[in-house]
Automatic annotation (TrEMBL):
Active site residues according to the UniProt entry: E322, H323
UniProt binding sites for Zn(2+): Q254, H257, D356, H415
Record's function text: Catalyzes the sequential NAD-dependent oxidations of L-histidinol to L-histidinaldehyde and then to L-histidine.
Provenance organism: Companilactobacillus ginsenosidimutans
Binding site for substrate: S232, Q254, H257, H323, D356, E410, H415
Gene3D superfamilies membership: 1.20.5.1300, Nitrogenase molybdenum iron protein domain
Pathway: Amino-acid biosynthesis; L-histidine biosynthesis; L-histidine from 5-phospho-alpha-D-ribose 1-diphosphate: step 9/9
UniProt GO cellular component terms: cytosol
Protein name, as recorded: Histidinol dehydrogenase
UniProt record similarity statement: Belongs to the histidinol dehydrogenase family.
UniProt key word Glycoprotein: no
Length: 428
């Protein structure tokens, strides 16, 4: 794994994240055509696309509940136990995110407040193909259910041999209401606009390829979306106290996701840097997803050696990684130095996969440097806020002159007259 030693300013320039490009004209045009076709032709367009892209003939998009129940009943006990542990911890963590509305009457005759309203229907995109991500279903469906969303539905590409049983079981455990066999940009279009078989939703969440991500970007405004996600990232801050074998394994845990995944180690120890680099090379040779992980390590990964701990955090805050591990002595003392990260893992026993599966905090995180301004998926993503106001006549009269003054400053005479219509006196 490449080791770099530059001054901090040069390193900061180097680590500026190049986010996944979603403006490829061919992809944009293709996705736009797919969306328009689904809007105009509904289920008919979906069936054509599933035949074309997934080579599957679909008669009924909605998966029968008996198929889901059978997958759950026959799931390996160890897998089922792991999913229930995940459910327990995800629930306990995300329940703490629940918020209350408020109401105040601090001024005589004035009532103000805000109420929180769950979204009515949410759609989860679950990728298909060779990978199966039951953990992502748990992480996306359960916060929605905890928030009080009425209906949570899944879209996922159909498979010739059937959808992965672990995916179906996870959907049942997480409380998903329906599963529809459709994938790609056409599935996003169906969720955004609705078809004869698939209901329109209020928000779409979940990862996907560049066509799915581009479709989410194009339908935003028609519906809400969680984020436009890019390849996975891991940043590790470590010193001489860290175990190089463990650090290397953690870097590879994300490198194996995607050839574009970005594994980064920042350290003040050249000795650790060299040991980690050697361990990455040796572990790659026996990793089942060696081809993918090697491309990630060689093209996107590096180890940066800096002078001091403060420089490690300065550099990593510039990266704003999706996952950030702090492998230093007494790591909690450094929490205040972390400004930009999706999720933080403290100490040598908080390996990143802990957060992927069972710890409880969400693993759907901002990528591509967007942790500078974005947050992990949570309960708050599935509620909206509505404010309310009530004034008595005397309370309105106290402030009427100021309202009409500002209205006329803005050239909105109708606004001023709407207030004045409540009184016999004009405030001009």
């Amino acid at each position: 794994m490449k080791i770099v030693q530059e001054n901090l300013a040069e390193l900061e320039k180097m680590v500026q994240m190049k986010t996944r490009q979603l403006n490829d004209p061919k992809v944009v045009a293709t996705v736009s055509e797919i969306i328009n076709n689904v809007v105009e032709n509904g289920d008919s367009a979906l069936k054509d696309y599933e035949k074309k892209f997934d080579n599957v003939d679909i008669d009924n998009f909605k998966l029968d509940q008996s198929v889901i129940d059978d997958a759950y009943d026959n799931l390996d006990k160890d897998v089922k136990d792991a999913l229930f542990l995940a459910k327990k911890n995800i629930t306990s963590f995300h329940k703490k995110e629940l918020e209350d509305g408020f109401m105040d009457s601090e001024q005589k005759g004035v009532l103000r407040g805000q109420k929180l309203v769950p979204l009515q229907r949410v759609g989860l995109y679950v990728p298909g193909g060779t990978a199966a991500y039951p953990s992502t279903i748990m992480m996306s469906a359960m916060p929605a259910k905890i928030a009080g969303v009425d209906e949570v539905v899944i879209v996922t590409p159909p498979q010739k041999d059937g959808i992965n049983p672990a995916v179906l079981a996870a959907a049942k455990i997480a409380g998903v209401d329906a599963i529809y066999q459709v994938g790609g940009a056409q599935a996003i279009a169906a969720l955004a606009y609705g078809t004869e078989s698939i209901p329109r939703v209020d928000k779409i969440v979940g990862p996907g390829n560049i066509f799915v991500a581009t479709a989410k970007k194009q339908v935003f405004g028609q519906v809400a979306i969680d984020m436009v996600a890019g390849p996975s990232e891991i940043g590790i801050i470590a010193d001489d106290s860290a175990n190089p074998r463990q650090v290397a394994a953690d870097l590879l845990s994300q490198a194996e996701h995607d050839k574009l995944a970005r594994p980064i180690l920042v350290t003040d120890s050249l000795k650790l840097a060299k040991a980690v680099s050697e361990n990455v090379d040796s572990q790659l040779k026996v990793l089942p997803r060696e081809e993918i992980a090697s491309a990630s390590v060689n093209n996107k990964g590096f180890i940066a050696v800096v002078e001091k701990i403060d420089d490690m955090f300065t550099l990593m805050n510039t990266v704003a990684p999706e996952h950030l591990e702090i492998q230093l002595e007494d790591p909690t003392q450094y929490l205040n130095q972390i400004r930009n990260a999706g999720s933080v893992f403290l100490g040598k026993y908080a390996s990143e996969p802990l957060g992927d599966y069972v710890a409880g905090p969400n693993h759907i995180l901002p990528t591509g440097g967007t942790a500078r301004f974005s947050s992990p998926l949570g309960v708050y993503d599935f509620v909206k806020r509505t404010s309310f106001i009530q004034y008595t006549k005397p309370a309105l009269e106290r402030e009427a002159k100021q309202i009409t003054t500002l209205a006329r400053v803005e050239g909105l005479e109708g606004h001023a007259r709407a207030i004045e219509s409540r009184f016999d006196t004009y405030y001009d």
